[in-house]
Amino acid sequence: MKVLEIEGNKPLSGTINIGGAKNSAVALIPACILGNNLTTLTNVPDITDINVLEEILNYLGVKVSRASQSIIIDPREMKNNLIPDDLSCKLRASYYFMASLLAKYKKVEMYFPGGCQIGSRPIDQTLKIFRKMGATVKEEDCLFRISAKKLVGCDVTLDMPSVGATVNGIIAATLCEGVMTIRNAAREPEIEDVADMLNKMGAKIEGAGTSTVKITGVKELDGCFHSVIPDRIEAGTYIILGCLTGDYLHINNVNPEHIKNLTDKLIECGADIVINEDNVIANISNNLTSTNIETKGYPGFATDLQQPFVTLLTQATGKSEVEETIYENRYMNVPYLNKMGANIDVNKRHATVLGKTDLTGCEVEATDLRAGASLLLAGLKAKGTTKIYHADYILRGYEDIIEKLTNIGAKISIYEE
Ligand code: EPU
Description:
Layout: E1 2-7, E2 12-17, H1 22-32, E3 39-42, H2 48-59, E4 63-67, E5 70-74, H3 85-88, H4 96-105, E6 107-111, H5 124-132, E7 136-140, E8 143-147, E9 155-157, H6 163-173, E10 179-183, H7 189-200, E11 204-206, E12 212-216, E13 225-227, H8 232-245, E14 246-252, H9 260-268, E15 272-275, E16 279-283, E17 293-294, H10 303-313, E18 318-323, H11 334-339, E19 344-347, E20 350-355, E21 363-365, H12 369-381, E22 385-389, H13 392-395, H14 401-407, E23 411-416
Parallel strand pairs: 2-14, 3-13, 9-10, 17-18, 21-22
Antiparallel strand pairs: 1-22, 1-23, 3-5, 4-5, 6-8, 7-8, 10-12, 11-12, 14-16, 15-16, 18-20, 19-20
Helix pairs in contact: 1-2, 1-7, 4-6, 5-6, 6-7, 8-10, 8-12, 10-12
The protein binds uridine-diphosphate-2(N-acetylglucosaminyl) butyric acid.
């Protein structure tokens, strides 16, 4: 187990460069194998989730060469192997291979995907799309056997705007017969990024990033060259950090449009931020005031930023109300924030934060990726030493975190225990 140790309450100044978006990269990589040629991805974040995808590619006989932030994927000798359960259970995004292998071979066998335990996270919407396109799905002990004589475009309306189902629907339909329409689609920027790359490979996808996506099937796809969009959740996390303890902290390589909902809320709380074309400058504010948030699919307030934002709310004067509408289990950071001195009360999907309260370092546990980020921010703000156990979760989604934070003046280390 990895432990992150932080000596908090230091002013943080300098520059943080934001990496490529985790939730784009983890979809782009499985989508690359649809091509009949090499694809080069740049601005790929150096995080452990990408290492797992690389292992899966190796398992499928896909040649991979990786150098710092780029990856070249050569699927020309790929085999439709069963991905072992101990790999697919490591991350949610493993189920994007379900769609790409089904699209390419009309047959796939795969186990239920993994991912942070932040809710029940079923995959029924993806299976609904596959079935409607003509596939047969058999499930036995978490193993899905999916096959189709052919995949035919159809008109499908999702029960909720699921990111994963929208990506899977797009991937599955790129090589289908006819035209596929996905309604009530998720609108996250990462979905647009996937569609942009697939269109470069020769796909015909329109409307990605809106709630209606239309895909006209093509016979085959080529490779391409594509750069991953900046990670809006990493950016948001560091902007919040700047508001907590920054000394004119520069967060570079940001698309401000992608985090508008966060920056609007920060401004509402009285945060001292300057938003430029591709960067944000965040400075400590000792006079933050409370606000209310409700998580929603994009362009609403991102559920992935809810936990880091709750850390900020502990430093805002007054009563803040938080409603988590996407995941039923995304307050696992709260008992630890309270242990550090916060005053937060959780009732099912609702949390009430009473601020502001001083935070003091202590031993806490990261229960999932963004809970870990929330505790990391709290530790950097708190007086004294914070030890975050199970910090492996944080490394799933934040690249070079020790280096990035050390460069701006944080006292932080990571070790095995
Ligand atoms: N849902 C269903 N059935 C489905 C699919 C989803 O009921 O078939 C429900 C989920 O249980 C959840 C809601 O719909 O309550 C939204 O789920 P969605 O499918 O949109 O989420 P996801 O694709 O599993 C991605 C990100 C998450 C992020 C969510 C929401 C990846 C790999 N993961 O998950 O990221 O929270 O979208 O924006 O892209 C993270 O980065 O920490 C993270 C968890």
